[in-house]
Structure formats: C-alpha cells, structure tokens
Amino acid sequence: MYLVDSHCHLDQLDLTAHADSLDHAIKQAHTMGVGHMLCVCITLQDFPAVLRIAETYAEVSASVGLHPNEIVAEEPTVEQLYHLTQHEKIVAIGETGLDYYRSQGDLEWQRERFRRHIRAAKKAHKPLIVHSRQAKADTLRILQEEDAASVGGVLHCFTEDQEMADAAMALGFYISFSGIVTFPNAKTLQAVAQYVPLERMLVETDSPYLAPLPHRGKPNEPAYVRYVADYLAQLRGITTVELATQTSANFFNCFTGAKK
C-alpha cells in the first residue's frame, strides 16, 4: 500500500519525545504505508525549516505561504513568494486562503493576501493549498475572480458542504479530508466524503493537529493518515488499498513537482 499525507506540518511536530523524533515520525509513517508527505509552510519565518526538512528527506515535498490568520509587520509580495517557489522541492503555494473564525474586524488584508498568493501561484505555475473557514462565499469568489482554475490545487482539511465541494471541483480543485471526518459528530462532512468522486479526493493529517480516531486529542503525525484512509474506505465501501492508490495518484496529478 502507498499513501500520501497531502498536508502536514513536520516542522511543528513535538521534537521532545525522541532524540531523533523527526526520523522516528517518518519511519512510523512508512510502517503505516505512507510513502510521501507534503510539509506545508504557514509563515515565511518558518520557511527555512520547512525547506530544510524537504531537502533532508526524499519522501517529503514542501510549499511556501503565509497562513491567513498570521499577523506580520510586512506582507509578502507576489515577487517574493514567486522567488521562494524556485527551489525544486517547492511544489505549491500555501497554505493560503481565508479564515473568518479566528480573525475579526475588517479582513480586507486577509483577502488581499489571498489574492497575492493566487497571483504568485499563477506566475510560478504551481497549485494552491487553500484554507477556508467560515468564509465559503468569499473564498469561492476570489478563486473565481483571480482565475485560480488556471493552476488548481486543493481545499485542504475540508469541513464545508457539498455545494462548496462542487464549486471547488468545478474550478479544478481537489477536496482533502483530514481526521475530522472520523469524528462521530461530523455527519455533514461524512456525507460529503461519500459524495466527492474518488478521483477528486486527497487525504491528510494536518499534523500535529486534528488527530483522527482512535488518537483524537493526542498529537497527530503523518502515520495517522492511514486511519483517515481506513475510515473513508469503509465509508465508501471500498478497500483501503483502492482508496490509497487513487488518492496517491490524485496527489501527484495535482502536485506535479512532487517526486514519488
């Protein structure tokens, strides 16, 4: 079996449990069938560490971006973001997007940041990793206005409804499911997971956050994407091997710069 964790934050893992904790986490992932991981950047301050991990491990790709909730003294320009994509291990722009849950007030700065990331992605010809929380209408509107369909990408850690999934897929985006889909109260999301075509689906951990059952409430790690895959396969009435095979193919179709 070959799985891909399409969204994790390896630079954010707890490094105190083992002296070689990052090596340990990646070896654990291998034992669960995880053959590739995308380490996603959330601040430009963290970017050197993210890139260093991707350079160290052949099975890790990386992205560059500034999370919508991060407050910075100076916003990155399109040119700065584009420049950082030129390393061979950088396969995407993000994570970017909109989050109206954790940020309040006039959020035009967040929308403008999102637009700059889309423009950088188009300039670099790389897909987008999109975060959207309580911002469905504006996320879709900006993706449409900025012609994000020309590069595509993924709506990561998807928690919205079928309508948003349809609109995103119409723009050429994949829908990625995290450990949240395994939570007993995630009925609406589970219905979406049954509905989304398998060829448009990705799986992720978003580790070290949002550990799936049976590890909910504990630190997450890439190995646990196996539990997400097992759950989704059972939900859809297929084998985990079938789900792993298709979602892994989807990942490499989306992130064409990633090397298997």
Describe this structure as you would to a colleague:
The chain is α/β, with parallel strands linked by helices. The chain has a single domain, classed as TIM Barrel (Alpha-Beta Barrel). It contains nine helices and eight strands. Strands 1-2-3-4-5-6-7-8 form an eight-stranded parallel β-sheet. Strand 1 (3-8), helix 1 and strand 2 (34-39) form a beta-alpha-beta unit. Helix 3 (78-84) packs across helix 4 and helix 8 (225-236) crosses helix 9 (240-254). It is globular. It starts with a strand and ends in a 6-residue tail after the last helix. The mean pLDDT is 96.
Quick structural overview:
By secondary structure, the chain is of the alpha/beta class. The chain has helices spanning 21-31, 47-56, 78-84, 108-124, 136-145, 162-170, 187-195, 225-236, 240-254, and strands at residues 3-8, 34-39, 60-64, 90-99, 128-133, 153-155, 173-177, 201-203. The mean pLDDT is 96.
How would you summarize the topology of this molecule?
Elements: E1 3-8, H1 21-31, E2 34-39, H2 47-56, E3 60-64, H3 78-84, E4 90-99, H4 108-124, E5 128-133, H5 136-145, E6 153-155, H6 162-170, E7 173-177, H7 187-195, E8 201-203, H8 225-236, H9 240-254
Parallel strand pairs: 1-2, 2-3, 3-4, 4-5, 5-6, 6-7, 7-8
Helix pairs in contact: 3-4, 8-9
